C-alpha cells in the first residue's frame, strides 16, 4: 500500500508551549493571548466557546449574508445567532454562561483587522476547497507575522488548502481537527504538513493538552485522518453484517454498545445523535479524496433513501429512531426503523443469552473473550462479533502505515474520539492476536490477507501489540513495525495514572474499596476503586486509618492525594448498606456508620499532612463531603459535583452541611467587614450572612449538581483557590504538585473551630418561610418540606439566639440527628429504594 500523505515526525509535547514558539521567533509574544475562529457554524462556534472556556478572548467571524442590511448588526448576524445558540446548546458549550463574554463577534469583511492581534487563527468554514483558498488569501495581509493558522477540515488535504500561500505562511499552517462537541470530546487530531514548523505545532499541541484538556494525536495528511477513517469503516461494516445476518437496528445497537466497550448508545442511536448527514459527509469526503489503493466506503441504498427523506437524526427528531412522546412512567416512547421496509415500529429490547452471561465478566478483555468463544452456528452474537472485530482489526492494521506513526495513535484516537474503552489494537490484544481456532493467523476468517504490520509482529516473535513494562514512565511498550521491536509508549510530562504507580511501586495497604499507593516524591495516593463508585465501610476505614496523626503513613509520606483512575470519583455513600440497616431497625449500626463517616472527613481535614482531593466525573453526596474537607481540591474541568442527599430524603451527614455553614460564614465575613469575633450578634444578623446561607441552603436543599468545575465554584462547592485541571490525564500529577507546594509552604492543619457564630432563629424562620412558599406553589412535596427544614436547622444552628457560639462538633451532632431522624421516615426509605432500582430520584 502506498501512503498518500508525507511521513511526518510527530513533534513531542513539551512544557514550553508558546514560550518555545517565541524563542524561535524573536518578535513573538511569550503567551497565547488571543484566538480567532473563522466560520460560526456548529463546529466553529463550539470551538470558539471552548477556547473561551480556556480563558482566551476569542474573535468569532462569519460571512456577511447576501440579504444583509447596511448596518454592523445585520452584517454580523450569523456570528450573533451562533453566540445565542451557544448559550442554549445542549450539552452546554460553556463551563458557565459568563464565559460567553470572552467572545467578540463580527464578519469576514469588515472585521478582518481584528485578526492582527491574534496568536492562533482557526479556519472552520465550509468544506469547499475554493472557499478555503479564497479566505486564506484575504486574511493573510491582516495576520501578525508569527500568528499560527490551522484548519479544522475533516476531509480536505491540509497541504493542498495552503499550497498557493507563501512559504512563511505554510510554515505556520497545519490541521487541528476537533471532534463535536469540542468541549466534551477529548480527541484533537493534529495534522502537520512537510513544511509545518515543529515548534509551532508543538506550541498548539501543548496548549490543547494543558488548557483545552485534549488528548492530542498526530495524524498524517490522508482522507479522514485517523478516527473518522477507522470509525466509518466500523460503522459500515456493522451495517453490512446487519443486512447479511438479517438483524434489526435494535439488535445491532445491543451488540455494539457497552458490551464491547463502545458507547452504550450502540451504532445507530449514536449516528442519530451525531447526525446521519454528518456520517454521509465523512464517507463522501473519503471517497472523493482517497488514494487509488484505498477501498471505497459506500452507504447502502436504504440509508441514501433515509437521507433523501430528510431523516437526519436527533436534530429533526427522526432518523434510525423516532420519539413519539412519553409513557405512563414518563419514559420516552421510542420507535425504531425497519431497514428493509423503512417503516417504524415500537423499539424492542433484544436479548442475547451470551451477551447476558458476558455481563458478569469483571473486565472488558474477559467479556470480549467470552463473546468470541461462542459457536457462530448457534450463537447469533458470536456470529456477528467474529467478522465485525476481525475486519476492523485487519483494516486498522492495513491502514496503519498510511494514517499514523504507530498503533498507539490509532488506539488513542478511537478511545478519545469515539469513546471506545479500548482501541482496535488493544481489543485485539485482549483476545489474543493468535486466537485459538484462527489457524495461527490474525483472523477468524482465514480468507482475509494478513496485513504487513501483523506479519512483521509475528515474524519478530511477538504475540501482542503491547507489553507491560513498569520500568518505562508510561508503563507500556508497543510494537513498532518499522523498527521491528517493542518501543516505550511516550507520554507528555505530567500525564500519569495510579495504575502505573501501582505496578511500579506496589501497594502500601488496601482493601476491596480503596488502596494506598506510593506515587513518588514522598507523596501517597488513596485510590478509590469500589464497585459502582460508592463509598462503603472499607473506604471509610482505610482513609481514617491512613490519615490519623499516629498512622505510619503520616510519618512516611509528606502528603496525600485522594483520587482514582475510574470514570467517576464517587457517586456517594453506599445506599444499599444504609437501606438494609434502616429496614431492619439497626439504629445503633446506622448511628455508628454516620459517626465513622464524620470521623473519616475529620481525619482528612485535620491530618498533619496536606490532603488534596483530585475529583473528576461524578463527585456526589459523600464524595463531595470528602472533597469539602481537604486542604485543597484539584478538580477536573468536567466535574459533576453536588450534595445530593436530599434527593433520597436525607441530608449531608458526613460533615458536608457543616462545611457549607463554615464556608458561608467565611464568605459573609469577607463581604460584610463585620468581625464575627468582636461582634458576633451583629454579624449573625447581617444581610450578608442571610444571603450567604440562603445560597448554600438552595445548593443543598435543591440537590444542585454542577455541570463543570467552574459552576461548582458558583455553588460554593469549590473555592477560588482550588485550581482546575483541563486534562483528565493530568489531574493526578497536578494534585501531587499541589501537595508538594503546600508542604514546601510549611503546611499546618487547621484547628477545630469552637467559636462559630450561628445565624439562629431569625434566618431559620426566613428559610422556612421560603420552603413554605415553595410548597404552596406546588414545587415541592410534604416530605421535601421535612427534609428542607432539617437542612435549614443545621445551617442556622437551630433556634438559637443570633450570634450564639457553637463548635464544629455541635454542627456534626445536628447533622447526625437529622440523618437518623430521616432514616426513620417511610418516604425516605421509598426514595432510597427507588433510586437504587432506577438510578433516578423519586418525588413522593
TrEMBL record:
Q: Which Pfam families match?
A: 3HCDH (PF00725), 3HCDH_N (PF02737), ECH_2 (PF16113)
Q: Name one GO molecular function term.
A: (3S)-3-hydroxyacyl-CoA dehydrogenase (NAD+) activity
- Any keyword NAD? yes
Please report the stretch or stretches of sequence annotated as the 3-hydroxyacyl-CoA dehydrogenase NAD binding domain.
35-221
Query: Which residue ranges does the record assign to the 3-hydroxyacyl-CoA dehydrogenase C-terminal domain?
Result: 225-322, 388-434
Q: Which UniProt keywords apply?
A: NAD, Oxidoreductase
- What positions does the domain Enoyl-CoA hydratase/isomerase occupy? 532-657
* Coiled coil start-end: none
Q: Does the keyword Nucleotide-binding apply?
A: no
Biological process according to GO: fatty acid metabolic process
**InterPro entries with a match to the protein in the record:** 3-OHacyl-CoA_DH_NAD-bd, 3HC_DH_C, 6-PGluconate_DH-like_C_sf, ClpP/crotonase-like_dom_sf, ECH_dom, NAD(P)-bd_dom_sf
What is this enzyme's catalytic activity, as reactions? a (3S)-3-hydroxyacyl-CoA + NAD(+) = a 3-oxoacyl-CoA + NADH + H(+)
The protein here is known as: Enoyl-CoA hydratase [isoleucine degradation]
Amino acid at each position: 500500500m502506498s501512503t498518500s500523505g508525507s511521513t511526518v515526525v510527530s513533534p513531542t509535547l513539551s512544557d514550553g508551549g508558546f514560550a518555545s514558539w517565541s524563542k524561535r521567533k524573536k518578535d513573538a509574544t511569550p503567551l497565547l493571548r488571543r484566538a480567532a475562529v473563522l466560520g460560526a457554524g456548529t463546529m466553529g462556534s463550539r470551538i470558539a466557546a471552548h477556547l473561551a472556556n480556556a480563558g482566551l478572548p476569542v474573535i468569532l467571524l462569519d460571512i456577511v449574508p447576501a440579504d444583509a442590511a447596511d448596518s454592523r448588526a445585520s452584517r454580523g448576524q450569523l456570528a450573533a445567532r451562533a453566540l445565542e445558540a451557544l448559550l442554549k446548546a445542549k450539552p452546554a458549550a460553556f463551563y458557565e454562561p459568563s464565559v460567553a463574554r470572552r467572545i467578540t463577534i463580527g464578519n469576514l469583511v469588515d472585521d478582518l483587522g481584528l485578526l492582527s492581534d491574534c496568536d492562533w487563527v482557526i479556519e472552520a468554514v465550509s468544506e469547499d476547497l475554493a472557499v478555503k483558498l479564497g479566505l486564506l488569501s484575504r486574511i493573510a495581509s491582516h495576520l501578525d507575522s508569527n500568528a499560527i493558522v490551522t484548519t479544522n477540515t475533516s476531509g480536505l488535504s491540509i497541504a493542498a488548502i495552503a499550497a498557493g500561500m507563501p512559504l512563511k505562511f505554510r510554515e505556520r499552517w497545519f490541521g487541528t481537527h476537533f471532534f463535536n462537541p469540542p468541549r466534551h470530546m477529548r480527541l484533537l487530531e493534529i495534522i502537520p504538513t512537510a513544511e509545518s514548523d515543529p515548534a509551532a505545532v508543538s506550541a498548539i499541541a501543548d496548549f490543547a493538552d494543558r488548557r483545552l484538556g485534549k488528548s492530542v494525536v498526530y495524524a498524517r495528511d490522508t482522507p479522514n485522518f485517523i478516527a473518522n477513517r477507522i470509525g466509518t469503516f466500523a460503522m459500515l461494516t456493522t451495517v453490512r453484517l446487519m443486512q447479511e445476518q438479517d438483524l434489526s437496528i435494535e439488535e445491532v445497537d445491543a451488540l455494539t454498545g457497552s458490551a464491547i466497550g463502545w458507547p452504550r448508545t450502540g451504532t445507530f442511536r449514536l449516528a442519530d445523535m451525531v447526525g446521519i448527514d454528518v456520517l454521509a459527509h465523512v464517507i463522501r469526503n473519503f471517497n472523493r479524496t482517497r488514494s487509488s489503493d484505498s477501498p471505497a466506503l459506500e452507504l447502502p441504498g436504504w440509508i441514501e433513501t433515509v437521507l433523501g427523506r430528510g431523516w437526519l437524526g436527533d436534530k429533526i427528531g427522526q432518523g434510525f429512531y423516532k420519539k413519539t412522546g412519553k409513557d405512563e412512567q414518563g419514559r420516552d416512547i421510542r420507535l425504531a426503523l425497519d431497514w428493509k421496509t423503512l417503516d417504524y415500529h415500537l423499539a424492542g429490547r433484544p436479548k442475547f443469552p451470551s451477551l447476558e452471561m458476558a455481563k458478569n465478566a469483571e473486565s472488558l478483555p474477559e467479556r470480549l473473550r467470552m463473546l468470541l468463544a461462542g459457536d457462530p452456528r448457534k450463537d447469533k452474537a458470536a456470529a456477528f462479533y467474529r467478522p465485525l472485530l476481525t475486519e476492523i482489526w485487519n483494516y486498522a492494521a492495513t491502514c496503519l502505515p498510511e494514517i499514523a506513526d504507530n498503533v498507539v495513535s490509532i488506539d488513542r484516537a478511537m478511545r478519545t474520539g469515539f469513546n471506545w474503552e479500548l482501541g482496535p489494537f488493544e481489543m485485539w490484544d485482549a483476545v489474543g492476536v493468535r486466537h485459538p481456532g484462527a489457524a495461527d493467523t490474525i483472523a477468524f476468517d482465514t480468507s482475509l490477507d494478513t496485513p504487513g504490520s501483523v506479519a512483521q509482529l509475528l515474524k519478530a516473535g511477538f504475540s501482542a501489540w503491547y507489553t507491560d513494562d513498569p520500568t518505562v514512565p508510561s508503563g507500556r511498550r508497543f510494537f513498532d513495525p518499522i523498527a521491528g521491536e517493542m518501543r516505550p509508549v511516550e507520554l507528555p510530562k505530567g500525564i500519569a495514572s495510579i495504575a502505573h504507580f501501582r505496578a511500579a511501586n506496589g501497594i502500601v495497604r488496601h482493601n476491596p474499596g480503596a488502596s494506598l499507593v506510593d506515587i513518588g516524591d514522598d507523596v501517597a495516593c488513596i485510590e478509590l476503586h469500589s464497585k459502582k463508585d460508592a463509598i462503603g465501610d472499607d473506604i471509610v476505614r482505610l482513609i481514617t486509618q491512613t490519615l490519623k496523626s499516629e498512622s505510619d503513613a503520616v510519618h512516611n509520606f509528606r502528603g496525600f492525594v485522594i483520587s482514582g483512575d475510574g470514570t467517576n470519583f464517587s457517586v456517594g455513600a453506599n445506599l444499599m448498606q444504609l437501606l438494609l440497616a434502616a429496614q431492619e431497625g439497626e439504629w445503633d449500626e446506622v448511628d455508628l456508620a454516620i459517626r465513622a463517616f464524620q470521623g473519616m472527613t475529620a481525619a482528612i481535614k485535620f491530618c498533619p499532612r496536606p490532603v488534596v482531593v483530585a475529583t473528576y466525573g461524578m463527585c456526589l453526596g459523600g464524595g463531595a463531603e470528602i472533597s469539602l474537607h481537604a486542604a485543597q481540591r484539584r478538580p477536573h474541568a468536567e466535574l459533576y459535583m453536588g450534595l445530593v442527599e436530599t434527593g433520597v430524603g436525607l441530608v449531608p451527614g458526613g460533615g458536608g452541611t457543616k462545611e457549607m455553614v463554615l464556608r458561608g460564614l467565611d464568605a459573609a465575613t469577607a463581604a460584610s467587614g463585620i468581625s464575627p469575633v468582636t461582634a458576633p450578634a451583629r454579624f449573625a444578623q447581617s444581610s450578608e450572612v442571610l444571603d450567604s446561607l440562603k445560597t448554600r441552603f438552595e445548593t443543598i436543599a435543591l440537590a444542585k449538581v454542577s455541570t463543570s468545575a467552574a459552576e461548582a465554584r458558583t455553588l460554593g462547592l469549590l473555592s477560588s483557590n482550588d485550581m482546575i485541571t483541563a486534562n483528565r490525564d493530568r489531574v493526578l500529577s497536578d494534585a501531587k504538585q499541589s501537595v508538594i507546594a503546600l508542604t514546601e509552604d510549611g503546611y499546618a492543619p487547621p484547628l477545630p473551630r469552637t467559636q462559630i457564630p450561628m445565624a439562629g432563629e431569625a434566618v431559620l424562620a426566613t428559610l422556612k418561610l421560603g420552603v413554605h412558599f415553595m410548597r404552596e406553589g406546588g414545587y415541592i412535596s410534604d416530605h421535601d418540606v421535612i427534609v428542607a427544614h432539617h437542612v435549614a436547622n443545621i445551617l442556622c444552628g437551630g433556634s438559637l439566639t443570633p450570634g450564639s457560639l457553637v463548635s464544629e462538633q455541635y454542627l456534626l451532632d445536628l447533622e447526625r440527628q437529622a440523618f437518623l431522624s430521616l432514616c426513620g421516615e417511610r418516604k425516605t426509605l421509598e426514595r432510597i429504594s427507588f433510586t437504587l432500582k432506577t438510578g433516578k430520584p423519586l418525588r413522593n
